[in-house]
């Protein structure tokens, strides 16, 4: 026999809760207390023909009248209400209502105080985190200790319960998510593990941000050729790591990226059709749409001229510089702290671009104007970027960003080196001259024993310049060759500026050397020729341009043949790892792929591809999805003013409740939402 005073076992007559059971219950039969020896359940008996019933047992073990009933609970957990005969009358042990206690003034004061506390709690809840967020955070801490398939599924189930248990407070504005790789510990084994982790990450981020108007999901598409060289080096090194799941599959054109797009479409449609609270529109820019994810987002924001508060989630630090460069103030950038230990909790860092601008205005030399901030962004890009090799000056610890700012202040004064994405070559040359002087001073002060340089490169010795060009470029230093290298590097800086401020000015341009020139060679700079307007590579062309031979299984077989067949023009561009030199700074000395050979060879095998592979090699458009309840349904789908192509989603979910439309960037979505 078990005792229970749970609220669901209260008196069905008046709702008074039962008292706690005594520590011991007598097992012997007394005059007015019996025990059923068959079931072991306590029975309460009537000892007064007028209906007075003894219901419970006092601390001394004797029955006490006029107290709430002490319920018994059977082995199945259900309450037992004994029914026993007395003088040929069926009587149950359900107690009568106890006499109503007197309501004194003290109780009135207590009730008023409780009401005040209750109202205060409501106000505090409105200010504090919403219950849904707390619930989601508990799910995360409980299940996402490690990214395993079981943990991810448990987290998804827990989060689903939170949605039905709490009403999440709507956010405001627009959220942009750059979808990239999730660090899984232990390393994943299958595509499904990674896709589940990505969707869980998105669910968690949306539980924090909760956009109301628009959610923009951006995936890296085909990158400009200037970025492809760096991507090729990274993927070459990644392929040497022993993992069951090849991370190089996170590249446009692979089968995995197609799976990712389909999973995202199903996830979007499921939420739009089943979750009535999803009143926002969702734009998906998948890997078939050319461009890096951060630049897709910034181009969209700039084209739509949005004024709402925007949240952008991205792990790429360049997004901060992009937001500053394009004078986007209504943006908060979310970044997740990276931990090497899998047990660390998730922590988001919020970077307000408006606050960052205000802080820069207070830091000497007061970057208050747009021109000064643009130069500050340029100095950061000059010190490190993903499109050009690093200048030797920045390998020295003494040449910091503070040192660059000090030189910039001396050289420029009230003028600027950049103007809305255009480089002032005169000011830039003066800046590089001063930087070269600082580099020489640092070299002279360096102790040869402690210098972190190649054994063959000794900057403190005479003939350093000749040594550098011979070692890094494989050529003797000449004025003509150094000017050729400098011209290409300056052209790269101009390309980078225009890319950050105006968009891609050339998809095919790239810096044709593995190393940067010396700072002292930036003299007699001439005007840089304009870039040629061209088109991006196709997905399979980029795959051939960035994939190492160790990851050939990710490519269609006709492309693999181009890699391995000795008679192919492409075979020499894919050496084995042991035949490639990697210097002490991690520079991979891979041969640069010839663009004409690349496009011609891939085009020649196009007929050997099946229909699925041809679809993976095609260029796509952004799609916008919304429910039939959204005002976009009438404005886009049923309006001749905005002619669009209705898209379909390959899913079992009823598509009649949601619509996906192929969207051209020229459509002013912000005016419609």
From TrEMBL:
Transmembrane segments: 108-128
CDD domains per UniProt: PIN_XRN1-2-like
Pfam families: XRN_M, XRN_N
GO MF term (any one): 5'-3' RNA exonuclease activity
Keywords, ordered alphabetically: Exonuclease, Hydrolase, Membrane, Nuclease, Transmembrane, Transmembrane helix
Residue stretches of biased makeup (Polar residues): 1-14
Transmembrane helix keyword on record: yes
GO CC annotations on file: nucleus
Superkingdom of the source species: Eukaryota
Coiled-coil region list: none
Protein name: 5491_t:CDS:1
Taxonomic path: Eukaryota, Fungi, Fungi incertae sedis, Mucoromycota, Glomeromycotina
């Amino acid at each position: 026999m078990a005792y229970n005073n749970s609220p669901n076992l209260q008196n069905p007559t008046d709702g008074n809760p039962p008292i706690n059971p005594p520590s011991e219950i007598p097992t012997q039969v007394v005059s007015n207390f019996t025990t059923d020896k068959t079931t072991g359940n306590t029975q309460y008996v009537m000892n007064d023909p007028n209906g007075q019933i003894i219901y419970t047992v006092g601390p001394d073990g004797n029955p006490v009248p006029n107290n709430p009933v002490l319920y018994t609970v059977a082995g199945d957990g259900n309450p037992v209400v004994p029914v026993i005969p007395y003088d040929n009358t069926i009587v149950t042990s359900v107690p009568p209502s106890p006499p109503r206690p007197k309501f004194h003034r003290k109780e009135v004061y207590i009730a008023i105080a409780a009401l005040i506390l209750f109202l205060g709690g409501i106000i505090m809840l409105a200010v504090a985190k919403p219950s849904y967020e707390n619930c989601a955070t508990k799910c995360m801490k409980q299940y996402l200790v490690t990214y395993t398939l079981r943990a991810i599924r448990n987290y998804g189930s827990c989060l689903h319960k939170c949605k039905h248990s709490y009403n999440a407070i709507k956010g405001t504005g627009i959220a942009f998510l750059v979808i990239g790789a999730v660090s899984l510990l232990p390393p994943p084994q299958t595509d499904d593990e990674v896709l589940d982790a990505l969707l869980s990450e998105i669910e968690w981020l949306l539980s924090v941000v909760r956009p109301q108007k628009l959610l923009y999901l951006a995936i890296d598409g085909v990158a400009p050729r200037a970025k492809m060289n760096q991507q090729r080096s990274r993927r070459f090194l990644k392929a040497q790591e022993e993992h069951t799941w090849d991370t190089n599959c996170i590249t446009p054109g692979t089968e995995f990226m197609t799976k990712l797009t389909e999973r995202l479409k199903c996830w979007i449609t499921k939420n739009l059709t089943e979750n009535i609270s999803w009143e926002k529109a969702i734009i998906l820019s998948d890997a078939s749409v050319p461009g890096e994810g951060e630049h897709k987002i910034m181009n969209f924001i700039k084209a739509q001229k949005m004024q709402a508060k925007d949240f952008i989630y991205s792990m790429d630090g360049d997004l901060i510089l992009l937001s500053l460069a394009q004078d986007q103030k209504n943006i908060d950038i979310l970044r997740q702290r990276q931990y090497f230990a899998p047990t660390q909790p998730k922590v988001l860092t919020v970077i307000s671009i408006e606050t960052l601008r205000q802080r820069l205005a207070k830091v000497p030399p007061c970057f208050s104007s747009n021109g000064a901030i643009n130069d500050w962004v340029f100095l950061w890009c000059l010190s490190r970027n993903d499109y050009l090799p690093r200048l030797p000056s920045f390998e020295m610890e003494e040449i910091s960003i503070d040192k660059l700012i000090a030189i910039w202040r001396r050289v420029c004064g009230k003028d600027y080196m950049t103007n809305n994405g255009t480089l002032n070559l005169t000011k830039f040359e003066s800046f590089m001259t001063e930087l070269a002087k600082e580099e020489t001073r640092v070299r002279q002060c360096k102790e040869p024993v402690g210098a972190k340089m190649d054994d063959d490169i000794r900057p403190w010795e005479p003939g350093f310049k000749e040594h550098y060009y011979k070692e890094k470029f494989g050529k003797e230093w000449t004025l003509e060759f150094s000017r050729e290298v400098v011209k290409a590097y300056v052209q790269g800086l101009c390309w980078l500026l225009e890319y950050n401020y105006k968009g891609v000015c050339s998809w095919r341009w790239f810096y044709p050397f593995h190393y940067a020139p010396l700072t002292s060679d930036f003299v007699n700079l001439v005007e840089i020729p304009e870039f040629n307007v061209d088109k991006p590579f196709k997905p399979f062309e980029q795959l051939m341009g960035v994939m190492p031979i160790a990851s050939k299984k990710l490519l269609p077989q006709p492309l693999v043949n181009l890699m391995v067949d000795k008679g192919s023009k492409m075979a020499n561009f894919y050496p084995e790892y042991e035949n490639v030199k990697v210097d002490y700074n991690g520079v991979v000395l891979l041969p640069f792929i010839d663009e004409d050979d690349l496009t011609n060879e891939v085009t020649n095998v196009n007929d050997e591809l099946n229909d699925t592979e041809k679809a993976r090699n095609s260029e796509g458009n952004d799609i916008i999805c919304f429910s039939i309840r959204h005002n976009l349904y009438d404005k886009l789908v049923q309006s001749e003013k905005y002619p669009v192509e209705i898209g379909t989603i390959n899913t079992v979910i009823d598509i009649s409740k949601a619509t996906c439309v192929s969207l051209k960037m020229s459509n002013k979505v912000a005016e419609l939402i």
